[in-house]
Amino acid sequence: MQEQEANMDKLLDYYNHYDEHSRLADAWGQVEYVRTQRIIARYLALPPAVVLDIGGAAGRYACWLARQGYEVHLVDPVPRHIEQAREASDSQPQFPIASVRAGDARQLPFEGEQADAVLLMGPLYHLVDLQDRQQALAEAFRVLRTGGLLFAAGISRFASAIDGLDSGYYLDPTFRQIIDQDLTDGQHRNPSGNPAYFTDTFFHHPDELRAEVAGAGFEVRGLLAIEGISYMMADLSQNWAVEAHRQFLLALIERIEAEPSLLGASPHLMCVGSKPQ
Predict the structure, then answer these.
(1) Average pLDDT over residues 140-149
(2) How many CB atoms lie within 10 A of CB 258?
(3) Which of 53, 102, 197, 217 has a CA that sits 20 to 30 A from residue 119's CA?
């Protein structure tokens, strides 16, 4: 229990200083955002439907889904995120988020079998212990209706190695130690205090993410790369701003999104599951 409280304190401290609201604004973030939207839209039934955005942060996905006509309920443990999500909802008064509340993915404030979809965009990597991730997945299973969908995001075991090479962080001996630990067991730890190196998290091997979702009773509908190898595109920021180049990149990512030999090369992964009939 003390370890869980310490992990939560680290999470709150990190996000009290990190601007999650603008994280998806640059080209890297935009690839993640658009690809996540496309994956969700591909599987999710047309509205009306109830979506629970668990760990929904500042409400980017919740607001988008609300604009499509879904009844969206957002839960997040970070007070700053709750404020930002409410402000974002207020900024689109014709399509508000149905509810925004503080809460924990391991103990959801909802009755069973009332949701058509559950988004877990952050909990599975912020919960560093397997037992806690299993509890979050069990809660998602509980609140979903039969046939309901789970969208569970994970960070790839190899993300720090990719980011370190791309950013030049590998020149820092501390970051090299972070890479080594991530590759060893997926337990990402940042002893430096540098917010660019993230906070305590768990980075999944693709097979682990699939196994955890399946182990919770879900039928795995897909295990997909979100960004894929988009970071390899020369001058990504400039090319993302060019419509033809952007559409080429998105089509390429989609074509290879489920290729097993490339899954781990994507910084983020999406496992789509359904609650069996």
Answers:
(1) 98
(2) 12
(3) 197
**Three-state secondary structure of the chain:** CHHHHHHHHHHHHHHHHCCHHHCCCCHHHHHHHHHHHHHHHHHCCCCCCEEEEECCCCCHHHHHHHHCCCEEEEEECCHHHHHHHHHHHHCCCCCCCCEEEECECCECCCCCCCEEEEEECCHHHHCCCHHHHHHHHHHHHHHEEEEEEEEEEEEECCHHHHHHHHHCHHHCHHHHHHHHHHHHHCEECCCCCCHHHCCCEECECHHHHHHHHHHCCCEEEEEEECCCCHHHCCCHHHHHCCHHHHHHHHHHHHHCCCCHHHHHHCCEEEEEEECCC
Which of 91, 107, 89 has its CA nearest to residue 99?
89
Tokens for 28, please give them. Answer: 């890297």
For residues 192 and 195, what is the distance between their CA atoms, to the nearest angstrom? 8
Q: What is the mean pLDDT of residues 96-110?
A: 98
Sheet holding 99-102, edge to edge: 99-102, 71-76, 50-54, 115-120, 144-155, 268-274, 219-225
What distance in Å separates the CA atoms of residue 247 and residue 216, rounded to the nearest whole number?
Answer: 36
Amino acid letter, residue 201: T
34 Cβ neighbours under 8 A, 6+ residues apart = 250
